[in-house]
């Protein structure tokens, strides 16, 4: 969707009183109001709580209420909040990633593999909701949805979603080889477009694009709260052919299209202002599927990483980081400076 269409859609939504950010606020309060005091105590944190930055994407004990805590009404309210916070495509991916826990439980066939609370380690209900601060149009607040292979972090300031990063999606298996889910590949387009761009390169371009023959074992930024610029590798956008630029933008759009449309439009605008010409595409590892490979798109304010190395290159980790505004830290700083002036 073009930026012009996104703006037109936002104006239409504003006219009918359903601006997406307001929709999220409504869904957050509906969710909180559905909870008992006991569950609410597990869900609510202050905006300043260090837990807000405790990003992780492996099956470990976490803070926050889970679907095990919720009745059917509360489950629906929780999912309504998540759906309102993402695009339909982003929401679909999150649901299908949760479903992969069922696949892992079958193929690993380890009934003794338990979490400290006694529940199965592979558990599609073991995904946690945390809300930081009080959902409000006037004051900043945040929320997180997290579990195995998902870490979705959101911040709202001045009534809009001002940050939706870090955004982590992972899949294991990357391609399901057995069970009733055989053939399922949740992050298929990411893989296809990455290889499509790589395989369009000339031999001379590949010398710039491929920075090592061995892919890193995981995304390089892992769970760091603050991500600095990685070493500058890869080919710059201006050095691509027109066909390559088209594929490059398809990859960028694929990642942006996971976000709620109003936030996505703002994020795209930020990337454009920092300069598309300043973005680079870099690759590491195998030049063919089936062996460990990694790629990234990097610019002044953006980092996208994709890694598929584990489990014989059938286990994907991919993340989007806003190098200036993860967890809304930049917009929160501006907000508090304004408040101090008042």
TrEMBL record:
Keywords, A to Z, come to: Signal
Q: Hey, what's the signal peptide range on this chain? A: 1-21
Q: Name one Pfam family in it.
A: DUF3500
Source species, domain of life: Bacteria
PANTHER family the UniProt entry points to: DUF3500 DOMAIN-CONTAINING PROTEIN
- Name of the molecule in the record: Uncharacterized protein DUF3500
State the species of origin: Arenibacter echinorum
């Amino acid at each position: 969707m073009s930026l012009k269409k996104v703006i037109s859609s936002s104006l239409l939504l504003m006219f009918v009183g359903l601006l997406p950010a307001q929709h999220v606020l409504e869904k957050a309060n509906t969710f909180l109001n559905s909870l008992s005091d006991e569950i609410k105590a597990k869900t609510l944190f202050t905006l300043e709580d260090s837990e807000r930055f405790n990003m992780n994407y492996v099956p470990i004990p976490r803070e926050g209420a889970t679907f095990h805590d919720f009745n059917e009404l509360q489950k629906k309210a929780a999912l309504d909040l998540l759906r309102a916070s993402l695009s339909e495509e982003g929401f679909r991916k999150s649901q299908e990633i949760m479903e992969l826990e069922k696949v892992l439980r079958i193929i690993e066939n380890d009934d003794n593999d338990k979490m400290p609370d006694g529940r199965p380690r592979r558990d599609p209900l073991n995904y946690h909701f945390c809300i930081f601060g009080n959902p409000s149009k006037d004051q900043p607040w945040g929320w997180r949805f997290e579990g195995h292979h998902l870490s979705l972090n959101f911040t709202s300031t001045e009534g809009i979603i001002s940050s939706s990063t870090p955004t982590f999606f992972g899949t294991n298996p990357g391609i399901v080889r057995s069970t009733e889910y055989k053939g399922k590949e949740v992050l298929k387009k990411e893989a296809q477009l990455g290889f499509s761009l790589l395989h369009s390169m000339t031999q001379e371009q590949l010398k710039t694009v491929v920075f090592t023959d061995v892919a890193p074992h995981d995304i390089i930024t892992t769970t760091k709260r603050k991500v600095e610029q990685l070493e500058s590798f890869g080919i710059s956008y201006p050095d691509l052919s027109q066909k390559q630029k088209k594929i490059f933008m398809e990859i960028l759009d694929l990642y942006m299209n996971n976000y709620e449309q109003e936030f996505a439009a703002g994020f795209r605008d930020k990337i454009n202002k920092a300069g598309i010409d300043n973005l680079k595409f870099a690759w590491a590892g195998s030049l063919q599927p089936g062996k460990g490979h990694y790629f990234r798109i990097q610019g002044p304010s953006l980092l996208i990483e994709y890694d598929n190395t584990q489990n014989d290159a059938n286990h994907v980790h991919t993340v989007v980081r806003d190098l200036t505004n993860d967890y809304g830290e930049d917009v929160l700083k501006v907000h508090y400076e304004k408040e101090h002036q008042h």
